[in-house]
Amino acid sequence: MQFHGSHILSVEQFGLTDLSVLFQNAAKLEPVARGELACNVLDGALLGNLFFEPSTRTRMSFDAAFCRLGGRVCDTTGFQFSSMAKGESNHDASRVISGYVDIMVVRHPQMGSVKEFADASLVPVINAGDGPGEHPSQALLDLYTMLKELKRDLTTINGLRVAMVGDLRFGRTVHSLAKLLSLFKGIHFHLVSPAELRMPADIVDFLRARGHTVKETTDLIAGVANCEVIYATRIQEERFESVDEAQRFKGSYAINRAFFDHYCDPKAILMHPLPRDNRSESCELNNDLNNHSQLAIFRQTDNGIVVRMAMFALVMGMQDQIDASLRPVGFKKKLIAV
Ligand code: CP
Fold first, then answer.
1. Which residue lies with its CA nearest to atom 3 of ligand 1?
2. Is it true that the peptide bond before 132 is cis, omega within 30 degrees of 0?
3. What is the pLDDT of residue 224?
4. Ligand 1 proximity of 273 Cβ (cutoff 6 Å)
5. What average pLDDT is seen over the chain?
6. pLDDT at 250
7. Residue of 49, 52, 55, 77 best suited for mutating to test ligand 1, as the one with most atoms within 8 Å of CB
8. What is the C-alpha separation between 76 and 106, in angstroms, rounded?
9. 138 lines ligand 1 (CB under 6 A)
10. Has residue 251 got a pLDDT over 90?
11. What is the pLDDT of residues 173-184, one digit of tens each?
12. What residue's CA is closest to ligand 1, atom 4?
């Protein structure tokens, strides 16, 4: 694909060459994300960060990524603080805001809504999650994390054994990640979910049509066996008819340290898009794993910054200026050990 000036709405836009370009730029930007170097390739640029659904990671990391590259951000969160509460359409909101900014990031609860924003926008739009549809930047940072954690690259990830666990029906991160992994060869997908929350059939068919092995099961122990990556997800209660309906699935697939030590490959990495549901009835990844070396969830969130910085640099056409723009920072950041 051509990144410069393009909307990023789905992982289906990417090929292996695009991932290579994106990840090379992300790796280059790691010292900037850590605050060790400064970069100003987006000096003068303005991001519109529009979140009509709750978010911590995606909203703040897109914001931080743009600022780390020297740009500035204006944002809106929730329908109640925008004129959409007065009945304004996605089309009108997008056309208006795209006249104020140079690029937009949009999260919205309805599948397909971010494409509506893109269709009306004067500037590139990045999908930050459209209901149960897609979450492409999450899938990109997930793949970047897998490569780093497993010490593999885009040529050696073929044959990966990955378990996706939990709410595979409404979890947009696994929809995007499964489709992104389908670019490789011979991936073994272990899809572990309650029968009611299975991966949508069109995605399962898509994976099988590309020659991958897909095993669907309700049995967590069988599902995680021999997997190199265990990707847990939260029950997406906000997408159910009622909280009570979601409640009956919570805790079905709780993984704690004892479970990991007993049933998982000791070299397997534990991932989760977060937020995990830390309430006692849920605990898809228990707090007793917090200091476990194989728990990659916070390294995964850290990777979100560099991947999103690389997306911005490429979509704004500034990737060739990164090297010349790197500068020492005027402060000494001191990390506190936890
Ligand atoms: N992973 C993710 O999308 O997290 P947020 O909902 O906090 O953005």
1. 58
2. no
3. 98
4. yes
5. 96
6. 87
7. 55
8. 10
9. yes
10. no
11. 999 999 999 999
12. 57
Ligand 1 atom closest to the Cα of residue 53 is 6
Q: Which two tokens stand for residue 196?
A: 């009611």
Could you give all domains of the chain from N- to C-terminal order, each with its CATH number? Answer: 11-133+304-328 (3.40.50.1370), 136-298 (3.40.50.1370)
Q: Give the pLDDT confidence of 300-330 residue by residue, as tens digits.
A: 999 999 999 999 999 999 999 999 999 999 8
More confident residue, 81 or 146: 146
Distance (angstroms) between ligand 1 centre and the Cα of 131 equals: 12
pLDDT at 252: 86
Ligand 1 atom nearest to CA at 128: 3
- This prediction has a pTM of 0.96
**Averaged pLDDT, 10-31:** 98
Which residues are CB-neighbours of 174 under 8 A, at least 6 positions away? 164, 168, 199, 231, 233
DSSP conformation letters of 4-41: TT--B--GGG--HHHHHHHHHHHHHTHHHHTTSEE--T
Give residue 278's pLDDT band: very low, low, confident or very high (50, 70, 90).
confident
Altogether, the residues listed in the chain come to a count of: 338
Q: Is 50 in the pocket of ligand 1 (CB under 6 A)?
A: no
| 337 pLDDT more than 80 | no
Distance 128 CA to ligand 1 centre (A): 9
Is the CB–ligand 1 distance for residue 128 below 6 Å?
A: no
CB 198 within 8 A of CB 172: no
CA 153 from centroid of its chain's CA atoms = 19
Q: What atom in ligand 1 is closest to the CA of residue 304?
A: 1
Using alpha carbons, list the distances in angstroms from residue 238 to 5, 54, 134, 271.
33, 10, 16, 22
Ligand 1 atom 6 nearest Cα: 55
- From the CB of 274, is ligand 1 less than 6 Å away? yes
